[in-house]
Amino acid sequence: MMKNFKLIIALVVLTSLVACNDKTKRQYQYMPDMYESIPYDVDAENGLGGKPVNSKPVSGTIPRGGTPAYDIPDTIEGYELAKTSLKSPLEKNEKNLDNGKKMYTIYCISCHGKKGAGQGYLATSEKFAGIPSYKDRDITEGSIYHVLMHGKNLMGSHSGQLTYKERWQIAQYVEVLRADLLK
Amino acid sequence: MKSVGLYNRLFSVFHKSFTLLLVLAFSISTYAQDVDEARQKAGKKLFKSQCASCHKLDKKLVGPALGGVEERRENAWLKAWIKNNAEFQKVNTEAAEAALYATSAMNAFPQLSDAEIDDILYYTTVGEIKKAAVVGEVAVGGQVLQKSGAPEWLIYLLAAAIVVAFLMIASLLKQVSELKGGAKPGVESNLKRDLQELWVGAKNNTFLKVLSTIFLLLIGAYITFGTLFKVGVDQGYQPIQPIAFSHKIHAGENKVDCQYCHSSAKHSKHSGIPSLNVCMNCHKAIAEVAETTEIQWNGQTYGKAQLDLEIDKLYEAVGWDKDELVYTGEEKPVKWIRLHNLPDFAYYNHAQHVTVAGIACQKCHGPVEEMDEMYQYSPLTMGWCINCHRETNVDLKSNEYYEKIHDQLAEKYGVEKVTISQLGGLECGKCHY
What we know:
heterodimer; A: 183 residues; mainly alpha; 0% strand; elongated; B: 433 residues; two-stranded antiparallel ribbon; two-stranded antiparallel sheet; 4 strands; 57% helix; 2% strand; disordered N terminus
């Protein structure tokens, strides 16, 4: 019996040592209330009253420093309307163009390529097929902005990843790319 | 043993010759179809570059499936439609009817010539040329793979069985010897006596006592401090995520920018977990992985079969019907497990590091583009933060707002470049308030 008891102790020590190295578990925390905070975290599962708090903004409201919601619908007519009537509120200067290029390099280049000819890495490695060159499409800054908001065909909406200003900066850069391709 | 080897060799010879026969038969049958390969190739290339973003041959994508479309519409009708469907709709009632089925208008393709459209249509009629030879080889490869050794778990199981059997035999032998009346009592008592003598000897040796006490104390201190220093430091933390998402495939092989998905890093304190519509920007079109894709996940190798199921998990969560290609509206969040978690008393801001300082994500998060399974690369301790703030120079270029203070600081410290700590990056209140 005594021998078994020692064996059990040895096993317990061994398993606890092994358990300490379990990389799927966090280490012990001193005063964990600073790690798992008492106020609710953004996007956390249990927020206010046990419900998630990432709810949509109240309809009809605009955040401070924000812009009115984009109200041109994602339809064939909406696309035409944006193409003909929507104009960029930004000044066309180097600064905007530079940031447009920066954003283009993050969000567009994978498919549309460095020059906008549809030869991005995902196209040349045959992950995506049929990405058009900007020169083959009759696009305006309004239609570019509209497509960034709603997506078109297989392209999804990129409105959540970019701010109002950044979308217009990208539109400006895409127009420059298109002009270069048409040369 | 020898005969088995002979049998295997014979079998493989037979198998290979059979495959060869099969290949021959297939190649004959493809020739019999009489496909103009050059035209098919030209048509395929055009189809891939112009049409494939909305059409597939066998499945609905944005537009309808185009396999055998010439059986449904006349050649001239198709040409008119492809070149400028909007104009064509005004003069042709059938075209106007067809447009009603579409959710978005098809683009006009005035740049395509009649011959090019004919090539595309030829491709939609004949489809892919079947490569029988490749199929044969894959089958042989599969056979070889299956032959090479038993699966790993089987080996472990066998090893465990052997150990258990050994223990059982040992205990049985012991019982037998006890039943016989204790075979070797003399030896045991001798050992006991020896040990006792040793213990008494050691007890009376003061030097040995002091030495062992110091040794024990040192070991105790090592274990205690080792444990204490680990408290709250989660370096290497690698929880099992609900979906087998591989950063290696997305950021490494496919070269998607980190910020494409973690887009809030550039403006916000947090580098958020992307919402599922960001996944769908690509996975609307990519419903399955390539044949050769493999990742290491939780100690296992996941191939195409498992990974396709992982993409299905995304579709289920975001409510995407992958056959009808529509959202069903039944959503449920994916419960990703957060790795990097700073306590509330430390302030950290992603935008300051990513946008202002322009630091690469890898500096803190490690080689993420090589990780199938994400783990915490850095300790995220205060010492680690401070080290970096001491060593890193502030980017002084094109920052007019701070030009004056940068110059003053450079003069004060007599240096060309100013580190973050000289700019006040070590002040307590910068991160703790």
